Amino acid sequence: MTVTTDTVSSNTVISARGLDLTFQTNDGPIHALKDINLDIGKGEFVSFIGPSGCGKTTFLRVIADLEAPTAGEVAVNGMTPAEARRNRAYGYVFQAAGLYPWRTIGGNIRLPLEIMGYSRQEQEERVARTLSLVDLDGFDRKYPWQLSGGMQQRASIARALAFDADILLMDEPFGALDEIVRDHLNEQLLALWARTEKTIGFVTHSIPEAVYLSTKIVVMSPRPGRITEIIESDLPRERPLDIRESQAFLEIAHRVREGLRAGHSYD
Amino acid sequence: MFRNLAPVLTVLAVLVVIWYGAAIVMNAPWAQDRAAKQGKTLGFSELVANTMSQERPRLPPPHQVGQELWKTTVEKKVTSKRSLVFHGWITLSATFWGFLLGTTLGLLMAVGIVYFRTLEMSLMPWAIVSQTIPIVALAPMIIVLLAALGIEERGVAKAIISAYLCYFPVLVGMVKGLRSPAAMQLDLLKTYSASGFEIFWKLRLPSSVPYLFTSLKVGIAAALVGTIVGELPTGAIRGLGARILIGDQFGNPIMIWSALFAAAILAGALVTIVGLLQKLALRKMGMAE
User: Fold this and answer.
1) pLDDT band at B289 (very low <50, low <70, confident <90, very high)
2) Omega before A224 cis (within 30°)?
3) I need a surface site. Which of A98, B2, B237, B247 has the fewest CB within 10 A?
4) Predicted complex ipTM
């Protein structure tokens, strides 16, 4: 463990206490989240991993105020999720890039800025700055269909970074991409995280991805969706791709796998 | 180009052949009656020649319709009461107003239905019912009603009847179009705390553009049909619908068919124009297929 409990609580950005969420569906209630307790410190990179239906995406959506919990409490920057959303506390990256086809890449990144009322000049500056953060300099006038899937997803990350949110919530952002592109984007994401010092919540179902990226890995299990294990990673923050062949990396990956297996033994 | 054209031309050729065949069969009895009264019998080639050139044929063959179209468009002055360009223009302008009115109505209703659940429950069933009433039955009532209100101008009645047919495809298409953004897109705007107006203006409306143009194509053709139907019972003497009616009353099938073809050509042209606008708009928006 690299971080002591004390520093976590003084720097806590996101905290969940006794969180419960039950969806009422036509097939009866679904217990999506059960008794979730978690603290995420400032500047942490936290991955949520688990099989489908474990509630990892739902938890991210609760933090973003896209779902309302049925019981328990969540605080984001010391506020309720709704207040945090209105205060533009986070940028959200979805599984699909979801760029507007009728807007250029620049226009897509400008979208949140227009809604949030930034001046024209400020918009231009921020578009240029965030495009270079994701290595898409000079692409602002291109349309989404002119970009590859990986580039589109980078543009959607730029869109989430365009305004000054300290938290970046990412819901399987690279899930639909092939492994080579994914490796590359993971590397870039780490570099971006180091440069911007944002707090990142990252949903994935890839063990190597979770271990490679995270300072903390939250292992979840389905029916009801719950946290089975929280693994603090002691890998250095500086991570070249070949760290994935190191002994330390493999050990953490092994612990994650064991955690996932333990969660499954219920059914 | 030829690959696209060949099937169309083949079908056209088949239709023309069938049409000529039908013209011979349908026009033959009259020719034989006449010959019988004069104590003559017609040979096959005489009979065919006769069916091709009757003054009031039951079914005018294509070339007669073509000749009439040519005479009443190119050879007549456009101000003449016998010019199809003149009558076409009357119909076209009423179609335009009906299209404008119907499209506006359809758009407003679609926005209302997408945003207010009560409107969806109350308005949508009536919109569907409105299209099950035959417009031919409704048109005279609209005219009588307007006359009772003191509006004698026929153009108004025609535009309303035209709009009545035209608003529905726009309504249905736009409800679908405005609802086309995926849940994820709406979630994204929620994370920005976007207002309802911003969601409409920045997401729903642009997403609906492809649907809008598809609806407009159906809508403008429906508006033209509506106008022509509106010209039938009004006792109108101007417009393509009036030409069809007059041709019927005076037993002049060539006039009916040429007016019919003029209407079809007009409809084709209108739909093509909307189609071109669609291409331009979608290319400009980066959404061209």
Assistant:
1) low
2) yes
3) B2
4) 0.87
